[in-house]
Amino acid sequence: MRLQPKLLSKFLCDIARAFLQSLEFLTILPLSRLYKRKAIHKPAQDFKASLSTTSLPSTSSHFFWLERHGWSASLCGLFVGSVCSLFAILFSFVLPNFLCACLTLCCSMILSGALHEDGLADATDALGVIKERRVSVMESSEIGSFAVLALILSFSIRAACLTFLLGESLQSLVVGLLLLHSGARSSFSLWFRYAGSMPAARLARAISRPSRFSAFSGLFICSVFSFIFLPFFVSVIFLLVFIVCSVSLLLFFVRFFKGVSGDLCGFGEQVMECVLLLALCAIMLD
């Protein structure tokens, strides 16, 4: 009986550690400064010690959330969507729908540090060169015409879709933002498990192969959210679109890049945001 509290404590520590790591990696929040302080009270020294291991070393321990708890990316997306929804509600009282949608997208980019947009730009530029140069192009700080066009197209599609959802109702916009950000981040572990790390990508090689639980837990979380926020028939269509898009991107990464990297995850996240938003708009239009 004495082992049960320890097992429960370890389980809760792993969950907290994974969620905090995903937030720290996928957003600009400086969480390592917060949970390293002694302001984190007892009840357990183990809890503090576990959280303190989530600093930013150059080893794969920082990717604990991706390797074993892929669901944490979905919860991180839900957090981002919640913050964006709050600002969208405030903007909707004083601004036209289109400006509200644009500023809501700006909030998501600021909160994530434009991490995924950067991945979209790098990966799109890499598609315009031969295979041997794709990694060097992705790691370059320069930006090409393909990247500019991809960023403009991504922002335009998302802004137009959010404008349409806001025109339907404020509730539709909030639901769309929550599902959008949660679903678009749900497949990171799945891609790394079945596509593998891109051989020449230095950071991706530090990531161990995610567990099967980690790979499919994001899909489970996304399914739960969709059934909570959407009617049953609509949620089924939404999940079908999500699965098809996620698998298609997986095959795309294997075919053109022989694996996945951080930039490609950002590329995939942006593509899934656009596809999921278009699906939601098409469903509500009918």
Task: Describe this structure in a few short sentences.
The protein is mainly α. The chain is built from 14 helices and no strands.
Descriptive account of the structure:
The chain has 286 residues and is mainly α. The protein has one domain. The chain is 75% helix and 0% strand. It has 14 helices and no strands. α10 packs antiparallel against α14. The longest helix has 26 residues. The protein is globular. 44% of the residues are buried. About 8% of the residues have low confidence.
Domains counted in the coordinates: how many?
Answer: 1
Number of strands: 0
What portion of the residues fall into strands of 2 or more residues?
under 5%
Tertiary shape: globular
Succession of helices and strands: HHHHHHHHHHHHHH
Total count of helical runs of at least 4 residues: 14
Give unreliable regions as ranges.
38-60
**Helix and strand composition category:** mainly alpha
Rg over CA atoms, rounded to whole Å, is: 19 Å
What are the main properties of this structure?
286 residues; mainly alpha
Topology:
Layout: H1 3-26, H2 31-35, H3 45-52, H4 64-68, H5 71-92, H6 97-112, H7 115-127, H8 134-139, H9 145-168, H10 170-184, H11 188-195, H12 212-229, H13 232-257, H14 262-285
Helix pairs in contact: 1-3, 1-5, 5-6, 5-10, 5-12, 6-9, 7-9, 7-14, 9-10, 9-14, 10-12, 10-14, 11-12, 11-13, 12-13, 13-14
